[in-house]
């Protein structure tokens, strides 16, 4: 996949590192030559120096055949204009913008980002993501990692356990018999970690999918 990342600051650099590590064709655009040089020197990416919202700069970055553009500069307005130019001039299919101003993130203005208005497919807010991650971690302080799926209906918790924990090497279908107090909407599975340094247990709270998963395990 060919991806253009506009903004080579910390956020843009981390995105470029992740995507290039997955063998995507990544081009980084920034008006600061030093940041572009840092990206091209440390990552497997191409670099273009210039203002990301300028059509000629995006053309030099390969926008005509890009699959996705991620506008992650420090300016909300530049990010929005970049997505508009990518859509109107180059017909880029997937457009992601980093927006920080609270006014731009207010729900009543969500129609602003529709394709026929200001075409942004995904709006990301680093501050909101950090706050959500903190609240998610506080909701399960004993877990070393948590993930939410199905709009909050499914939650995965990573918990370190001892080798003598009764769930280790226990078949999934027996867990609800051993731990009947968990209720019908909970499933648990014990996994002996391949890294040999720890054992992990993942508990899934599945409010709507528990029954179908149980049927598959029978």
Can you characterise this structure?
This protein is α/β, with parallel strands linked by helices and 218 residues long. The protein folds into 2 domains: 2-127, 3-Layer(aba) Sandwich (Rossmann fold); 140-217, Alpha-Beta Plaits. It is 34% helix and 25% strand. It has helices spanning 10-21, 33-42, 55-60, 76-88, 102-105, 126-139, 172-178, 210-217; strands at residues 2-6, 25-30, 46-49, 68-71, 94-98, 122-124, 145-149, 154-161, 186-192, 199-206. The strands form 2 sheets. The protein has a 6-stranded parallel β-sheet, sandwiched between helices. Strands 7-8-10-9 form a 4-stranded antiparallel β-sheet. α1 links the parallel β1 and β2 (25-30). The longest helix has 14 residues, at 126-139. The protein is elongated and about 65 Å long. The two termini are 40 Å apart.
Helix content: 25-40%
CATH top-level class of the largest domain: Alpha Beta
Main beta sheet strand tally, sense and closure: 6 strands, parallel
Q: What is Rg?
A: 22 Å
Strand order of the largest sheet: 3-2-1-4-5-6
- Cα(first) to Cα(last) distance is 40 Å
CATH architecture of the largest domain: 3-Layer(aba) Sandwich
The name of the CATH superfamily of the largest domain reads NAD(P)-binding Rossmann-like Domain
- Integer average pLDDT: 77
Q: If you consult CATH, what is the topology of the largest domain?
A: Rossmann fold
- Detail the poorly predicted runs: 184-218
Total E-strand runs: 10
Number of domains: 2
Secondary-structure-based class equals alpha/beta
Binned strand content: 25-35%
Shape: elongated
């Amino acid at each position: 996949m060919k991806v253009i990342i506009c903004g080579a600051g910390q956020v843009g650099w981390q995105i470029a590192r992740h995507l290039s590590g997955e063998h995507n064709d990544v081009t980084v655009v920034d008006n600061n030559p030093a940041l572009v040089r840092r990206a091209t020197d440390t990552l497997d990416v191409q670099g273009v120096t210039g203002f990301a919202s300028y059509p000629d700069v995006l053309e030099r970055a390969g926008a005509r055949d890009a699959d996705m553009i991620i506008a992650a500069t420090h300016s909300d307005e530049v990010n929005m204009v970049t997505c508009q130019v990518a859509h109107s001039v180059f017909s880029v299919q997937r457009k992601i913008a980093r927006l920080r101003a609270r006014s731009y993130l207010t729900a009543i203005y969500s129609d602003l980002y529709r394709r026929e208005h200001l075409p942004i497919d995904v709006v990301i807010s680093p501050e909101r993501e950090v706050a959500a991650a903190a609240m998610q971690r506080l909701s399960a302080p004993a877990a070393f990692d948590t993930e939410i799926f199905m709009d909050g209906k499914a939650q995965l918790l990573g918990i370190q356990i001892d080798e003598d924990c009764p769930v280790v090497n226990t078949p999934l279908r027996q867990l609800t018999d051993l731990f009947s107090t968990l209720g019908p909407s909970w499933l648990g599975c014990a996994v002996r970690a391949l890294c040999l340094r720890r054992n992990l247990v993942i508990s899934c709270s599945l409010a709507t999918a528990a029954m179908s998963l149980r049927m598959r395990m029978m």
